[in-house]
């Protein structure tokens, strides 16, 4: 699905960038040019960022709990 129409950035490109360590709006803007034109896609990109950070936090928490038991 295309997220950023202005720069033809797809959701899978954003997810791949997040998985490779690009984990801030500024970094995504630099890497993919997402949200650098009209800005209409910025809320959706922020949703992907929040989801990624939540998943990372959950994984980290699970790892810490595994050692606590």
Automatic annotation (TrEMBL):
One of its GO terms (molecular function) is 2 iron, 2 sulfur cluster binding. Gene3D superfamilies: BFD-like [2Fe-2S]-binding domain. Keywords: 2Fe-2S, Electron transport, Iron, Iron-sulfur, Metal-binding, Transport. It comes from the Bacteria. InterPro entries: BFD-associated_ferredoxin (IPR052371), BFD-like_2Fe2S-bd_dom (IPR007419), BFD-like_2Fe2S-bd_dom_sf (IPR041854). Residues 2-51 form the BFD-like [2Fe-2S]-binding domain. Its cofactor is [2Fe-2S] cluster. Coiled coil: none annotated. Belongs to the Bfd family. PANTHER family: BACTERIOFERRITIN-ASSOCIATED FERREDOXIN. This is Bacterioferritin-associated ferredoxin. It comes from Psychrobacter sanguinis. The lineage of its organism: Bacteria, Pseudomonadati, Pseudomonadota, Gammaproteobacteria, Moraxellales.
């Amino acid at each position: 699905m295309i997220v950023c129409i202005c720069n033809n950035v797809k959701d899978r490109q954003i997810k791949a960038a997040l998985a490779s360590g690009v984990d801030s709006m500024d970094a995504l803007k630099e890497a993919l040019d997402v949200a650098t034109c009209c800005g209409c896609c910025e809320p959706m990109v922020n949703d992907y960022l929040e989801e990624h950070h939540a998943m990372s936090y959950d994984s980290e928490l699970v790892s810490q709990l595994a050692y606590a038991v």
